[in-house]
Amino acid sequence: MSTFAAIFAPDGKMWRGTEVELGEADVIDDITDLMIDFAVERGGDEALLLVEADDEWFAIVRAEDGGEEPRVYLSDARVVHDHTIASVLSEAGGLGAPPPSESAGSRPNPVPDGDGDLITDLGVPEDELHDLASGGGVLPSDVLAVVAERAGFSDLLDSMRL
Predict the structure, then answer these.
(1) Quick one: pLDDT at residue 99?
(2) Is the Cβ–Cβ distance between 17 and 8 less than 8 Å?
(3) If we measure between CA atoms, which residue out of 109, 126, 5 comes closest to residue 59?
(4) How many CB atoms lie within 10 A of CB 25?
(5) How many domains does the chain have?
(6) Do 44 and 81 contact (CB within 8 A), yes or no?
(7) Are 114 and 58 a contacting pair, CB within 8 Å?
(8) What is the mean pLDDT of residues 125-135?
(9) Mean pLDDT in residue range 46-63
(10) CB atoms within 10 A of CB 55
(11) At 123, is the pLDDT very low, low, confident or very high (cuts 50, 70, 90)?
(12) 106 pLDDT higher than 70
């Protein structure tokens, strides 16, 4: 399985980013600690994690230093039974994964779940995020490119994907 994951944190008016490996993450605290450490090292207190796996699904996580639980959006809740990272994110976000009998291969349309409002202030309202996640023919990497463009770090994301 090919997975891309990167953390982005605003540093004043500029965003900083780094690609990360999430294979060792067993619980959400492993992921949010990584996110917050990256943000704090750059003088901020907030970070976004963008995850895309196999052109099948994406996730967005938003965490703040000293804030509440991380906010999670998963483009297809059905993948939690097949992907460890999706499962960890699902548990953290309190998402309602469909039973395994409704796995990703058995239904054609994604089942988005989570806090769709988590990036509204960055220019992607909940209804648009849901439409992008459940719309046919839109690759997860394309959705994340839209998120990055609206938030102002598309060049940074593009440079990581080269």
Answers:
(1) 57
(2) yes
(3) 5
(4) 19
(5) 1
(6) no
(7) no
(8) 92
(9) 95
(10) 11
(11) very high
(12) no
Containing structural domain, residue 121: 3-161
0.85 exceeded by the pTM?
yes
Question: Would you state the pLDDT for residue 119?
Answer: 97
Q: Which residue has the tokens 């059905």?
A: 78
CA angle 130, 137, 107 (to 5 degrees): 75
Judge whether 120 and 128 are in contact, CB under 8 Å: no
The count of C-alpha atoms lying within 13 angstroms of the C-alpha of 54, restricted to the half-sphere facing its C-beta, is 9
Phi, psi for 146 (deg, rounded to 5) = -65, -45
DSSP structure string for the chain: --EEEEEEEEETTEEEEEE---TT--SHHHHHHHHHHHHHHTT-SEEEEEEEETTTEEEEEEEETT-SSPEEEES-GGGGGT-HHHHHHHHHHT--PPPGGG-TTT-SS---EE-TTTTGGGT--HHHHHHHHHSTT--HHHHHHHHHHHHT-HHHHHHHH-
Q: Given a cut of 60, is residue 47 above it in pLDDT?
A: yes
pLDDT 10s digits, 7-38 = 999 987 899 999 999 988 999 999 999 999 99
Overall average pLDDT of the 90-112 stretch: 64
Q: Looking up tokens 């460890």, which residue turns up?
A: 84
Read off the amino acid at residue 112. P
